[in-house]
Amino acid sequence: MKRKIIFSIISIFVFFYNFVFAYDEKIGHPRIIEKAAKRLDFERYLITNLGFIDGLKTRFLKVSKNNILEWLQEGSRLEDSPWCRATNHFHNPLKPWDQSFLTDEPLWLGVHCRSWKPWYSNITWATGFLSPAGPRIIPTKQWMGWHDARDYYYWALTSISNTHRETYFAKTFQALGQVLT
Q1: Is residue 3 included in any domain, yes or no?
Q2: Do the beta carbons of residue 68 and residue 177 sit within 8 Å?
Q3: In Å, how far from its chain's centre is CA 172?
Q4: Cα–Cα dist 65/44, whole Å
Q5: Contact by Cβ (8 Å): 47, 55
Q6: Range of 124's domain?
Q7: pLDDT for res 10
Q8: Band of the pLDDT at 166, cuts 50, 70, 90?
Q9: How many domains does the chain have?
Q10: Is residue 117 domain-resident?
């Protein structure tokens, strides 16, 4: 009898609660970003090419106390805020980019996030390109995409003011965190 009750409770939970938070913005995304930065040896790039002697631990003290890794992670958290942005995190590699977006969404998501349509493939959402060599669009409600990261990076490299440089570097790494998510 006890087993039947436990099985029934578990079955109900699994049946009705099918939304999994495995890659949530609070824990999963920041950990993925940290592992990616370390695996790609991003720290060496920061030290060698940009002169950030503290690598990922470099802080932009005029802007905040966040270091580069924390800015990347902050971007990964912000990419799902508001959470309807997450509808643009999918890409089906078997379809053309302009058709590879989320298509099997639950009814409640389609209703709740209808103002975010059209939805885009993850690649189109991040870069604006509809195909590898195709036209570029500006996806609806996209801010902090690849082109924003490039603009912030350029402004960081060309700013005369240290405060502006740090601000633009912080925004560069935040945008990269959002693009990578």
Answers
A1: no
A2: no
A3: 13
A4: 22
A5: yes
A6: 38-57+67-180
A7: 59
A8: very high
A9: 1
A10: yes
